[in-house]
Amino acid sequence: xxxxxxxxxLHPILLLQLLLVLVTPARVVLGKRxxxxxxxxxxxxxxxxRSYESEVAFRYxxxxxxxxxxxxELVPIVRYVWPEDSFKTERRTCELAAEGVTAIFGPxxxxxxxxxxxxxxxxxxxxxxxxxxxxxxxxxxxxxxAMTINxxxxxxxxxxxxADLIVDYSWKSFTIIxxxxxxxxxxxxxxxxxxxxxxxxxxxxxDDDPDYRPLLKDIQSSGESHIILEIRPERILELxxxxxxxxxxxxxxxxxxxxxxxxxxxxxxxxxxxxxITALRLMDTKSFxxxxxxxxxxxxxxxMKRPFRLSPEHVQTESALYNDAVKIYxxxxxxxxxxxxxxxxxxxxxxxxLRQWPFGLRIVNYMKVKTEHGIxxxxxxxxxxxxxxxxxxxxxxxxxxxxxxxxxWDPTHGVNYTRSQGEVYSQIVESLQNKTxxxxxxxGAPFLMIKEKKDGEILEGNNRFEGYSLxxxxxxxxxxxxxxxxxxxxxxxxxxxNKITKKWDGLVKHLLDRKADLAVCDLTITYERRTxxxxxxxxxxxxxxxxxxxxxxxxxxxxxxxxxxxxxxWIYMATAYLGVSVLLFxxxxxxxxxxxxxxxxxxDNDEVENIWDMLNALWLTMGSIxxxxxxxxxxxxxxxxxxxxxxxxxxIMLSSYTANLAAFLTMERMxxxxxxxxxxxxxxxxxxxxxxxxxxxxxxxxxxxxxxxRMWAAMExxxxxxxxxxxxxxxxxxxxxxxxxxxxxxxxxxxYITERYCELTQIGGLLDSKGYGIAMPVNSxxxxxxxxxxxxxxxxxxxxxxxxxWWKEMHGGGRCDAAANQGPGDTAExxxxxxxxxxxxxxxGCFCSFxxxxxxxxxxxxxxxVDEKVTPWEALKAELKFALSISVTSKxxxxxxxxxxxxxxxxxxxxxxxRRGSESASRINNVHTTPSLMNIDKMxxxxxxx
Length: 946
Fold this sequence. Notes:
This protein has 946 residues and is α/β, with parallel strands linked by helices. The termini are far apart. Its main location: membrane.
């Protein structure tokens, strides 16, 4: 209200109103009852700007209420105190009570607000505050909070909102930077979400020293990239400026600002930093209510000739809360005044007969059950006067629009994103344009190899390399439109965690040190690595398998058909053959049944004969063992028993021989045979190992499966060490190991090796299932976009084409396909090298038979020459002529040697007849001649009767 000048004439009605002021605090102005309300603001420089804006919001919120009220008018009475001056705060509170205020708003300091609340509780004056207020130790006492209403979000609920945001961001570890003890108390729930097995949380406090660089450098050296700032708003910008100087505002650093006034700061100089800066806001700065309120403030100050310009996007939270506090209090006064007129009372703090305002408790209780909606959203209180239900905007600093709303939070639904995935993806893809990624990798065929130089060729940059990884990242870059630069990790390792030093090595360390944006190679996605870095979706699936040398091919053996039986068996068989033949001969000489009449038609023949000479006995046993039998059989029981036992023996041996012949001829001999990991675990002769520090080693080291635990124990205790530095070293060790070393490796690398080293093969199936992924720092904003590009390449078949190209086509691939498909146990065709010995034996037998035939022919020529009394030459020509006459089917007893001997034909014929007679007689006494072996009839004889 404007002060009156001394020369102004007072209207009589106004004079009457002035008189009434001295009598009662309830004044009636132009038909409206005046209801005074008090407010206490701070004078401290730290609070001056905030207090000024809050006071403006307080006064013009009252002005707007008065514009719409017909029955009463709120009259503001404002006092100022220092934040630490508790004595004057109490005096100013009592002064306000003496002036008959119906409520006291503020102050903003926790210490002074407690004093005001204590006085208001005693006098039962409503006390309305708009700042963060922690829960007292030992819990809240209802009596102490009976008269206090706090529009600031309840401490535990606000802490839960921050905790939900951290969980949604998947922060495994983070550092908290705070400046006051009460600030650390606000993060109670955040500290409680940390479990004993989680990564450690670092808490760092800053003092009044304005140089924050040493602290920021310590955080940077620790590798931490997630930071929570719980500091006063006036310190936020300076800390972030210094963070930018020490390169702590880079692409993978993320900040969460807990202050609800972060949106009021000018972040223009930091908008183009590459880090993610997130804050919380209690109001929607684009709503009509806040725009209308700011308009009232600006117009009101303009009437007072005080410059005041404020954007709705920069309204302080306390100012908005004062506006809502006045609104909800005026609503309570209006609705209670409709049933009973509310009259202010002047109260005294030091009176012996202490009076309490009778309407105060009723107003507070009404406000607790009343639900309102202000510029800070829904306003709902619990029984203790705390605001437990509210909405928060999650805002993110963008390059174009400053802070931009990306999500909301409320106690019921938690974090709820307002932007679509498509918008997020488009924003990320847009940021990738013309960006250059540093891509870390390691040498390892076929993923990345040093390209061979041609004559006069100079290779620089990415042209130095070739391989699957290079073409993969090149394909992704063409889809997303970024540039890249390949770099090799210094130690050449994939990345493993050292539990002693608490540090990572290899590609993972390169990413953690922010020396690379991506890591592309045959890097397996594991749980341990996933805790340190992020991965895209797998671009290749695989599993652990066993690399082993193929069985050694034995030299071809012409007599390999003898392999089914050992040398000892062959010797025993020959011995048994001779022994049975001799036994058969002896028994047949002894057995009467084997002596038979040579002429069955002559019953009075005095002579019998025995056909079982040694040759016939040998022939019988030979025919039996060959499975062909014989036309002559023994007669006696003893000889039949011997023959039967021999035939049974021959049947068993022949069956065994034929059953095992093919297997022995096709089987390749080896010193040791393995077909699975279980076979390796059960033996100790063949050593096995893996790449040290790799995912395969970690698989066995952490496995709970008993077989793999035994294998790990064997590998760990083996001396010399069975571990290698690379897959190539493991491959060479298998080749040189002479089937005494097996290498455990990932199936993709194993497939590449077996395509080029035909003496190596894969044993068994896959021991597990996993995938290769592109690694990047945790919470990288590009993970979704790069995963999408990988998926697109997979759907278009480009990943399959890349694998076919680098596994089966480039650098000698594909030449071992046939060998790789044929395992050690597969059946192969028999070649002449396996069964050639059979042909040698056959040829040798035929040759021997031919020689024997010639000898028999010559022996017969000699006998003919003697019997016919001709020269051997004439006998030879006559026998040859007859043998070569293939049309002649019958043969005379002797050949006509020449026409000149016709005169002696009769004499020769008579001699021949007499010779034939003598031969017939000799057959009776001598049955072991050549015709007897041919067994023309059952008895083995042929008689000619003249």
